[in-house]
């Protein structure tokens, strides 16, 4: 067994899916077609913190096709050494990996150019052409206002030829509201087919989000209780213990609803609430996600609480400062840094069950989780008030876990009951397993051509339809924003 194959197996011990695709990709080094991965915006924050480190981990673990080359493109006049220096602190290189690291940077190049210059993209294309006939991936690590010129140039000048493919990865934000999204959608769809576009919502690459499907559809016990008859409410939360860290001006353009709720939390809602797809095929899953989103009416501002953090008196560092203390944030900003919203899914399974989405910055901890709260036990025979509702919790991060709150008898002669947990904490159960980073899984998906973990255009349409009226009310009507102290 080759080193590459054993690495694939160790990463994908639970993912025959990947072995299957990668088996094809790695069929034979001689006959394998070359691949090029182009990062547009290679000088930027996402590139150094996520893209280069992820490419390195995939390369280091032998998960990429043998003849894969990497090209960074941005306006800044940089050398590859500069990109390397920026990314290195995030690459977590271990002792003994030095030789591999050199090999990785040997297949990396950087070229500078403008995003709307055909001549510059022609130079990029010439560089790619030197690799020979190859499959091409373009990652747009760029501010959204550059998407249009950059994608136009890719289409005009840089598409692969013959029977090799071209795929384009786009990062959120996919617009600011339904109108701007539709403009972006119409532009992109004139250039590329849906199969060529990979819209990243990195929550879909998280281990627990993927596991959710297996737990829901791979266990017969859940389906009969997965409905309005047994479930009282579903709470989906995202909490961050940090503020905007000097990037408040940038955050102020979006706010927590656009940043987290409209995408990450709504994606989780759709996976929790969807019907069982006919198969694990990407289109079957995405069809079901869209079907459930179509049943969600626009969020009513009456069902929403908005907050903005203030500094904590006497605290050190960032916690001492409120959102409005950031000099890059307008002093009268009503941009929410916290939001809680109740959504409903008007279908036979969920009618009347509140889906409570909550997300915020500058809170007391870092956590993302889904809580399924069951109804009270009917005809309770125990002491009144003793029996608590069952709750099934999926902790997405940190420390992935699934646990079920159940009632049990306290051991001993007395007949007392108390709440306890059936606990599946993954680091205990799978002590030596490697949990791939979400970006690792997603970038590998692009190589393998799996769109299961990417957002389809009609999903985005529904997401914007659900949130645009609320966002417009916030932008135009300046609703009451509840102040909360940093760390609450
Ligand atoms: N940073 C993150 O952690 C993160 C997380 C999730 C999503 N995203 C999304 O990923 C994309 C890239 O994010 P980022 O944080 O890496 O952005 P960034 O650092 O602000 O920008 C990336 C690169 O784009 C170029 N650029 C910036 N402003 C430009 C302008 N006005 N005109 C032309 N070029 C410009 C710059 O390169 P040159 O000047 O050298 O051309 C810059 O290095 C964005 O869509 C962002 O919303 C980022």
Give an overview of the whole structure.
One of its GO terms (molecular function) is glucose-6-phosphate dehydrogenase activity. Catalyzes the rate-limiting step of the oxidative pentose-phosphate pathway, which represents a route for the dissimilation of carbohydrates besides glycolysis. Pathway: Carbohydrate degradation; pentose phosphate pathway; D-ribulose 5-phosphate from D-glucose 6-phosphate (oxidative stage): step 1/3. It is a single chain. By secondary structure, the protein is α/β, with parallel strands linked by helices. The protein has two domains: 24-171, NAD(P)-binding Rossmann-like Domain (Rossmann fold), CATH 3.40.50; 204-438 and 447-485, 2-Layer Sandwich (Dihydrodipicolinate Reductase, domain 2). Helices cover 36% and strands 21% of the residues. The protein has helices at residues 3-11, 16-25, 45-60, 80-87, 98-106, 118-131, 147-157, 178-191, 207-217, 248-252, 255-273, 282-293, 426-429, 438-448, 457-477; strands spanning 34-40, 68-74, 108-112, 134-140, 166-171, 197-200, 231-239, 304-310, 338-343, 355-360, 367-374, 391-397, 401-409, 417-425, 482-485. The longest helix has 21 residues, at 457-477. The chain is globular, with a radius of gyration of 24 Å. Mean pLDDT is 91; it is low at 1-17. The structure holds NADP nicotinamide-adenine-dinucleotide phosphate. NADP nicotinamide-adenine-dinucleotide phosphate (NAP) binds at residues 41, 43-47, 49, 74-76, 115, 141-144, 146, 171-173.
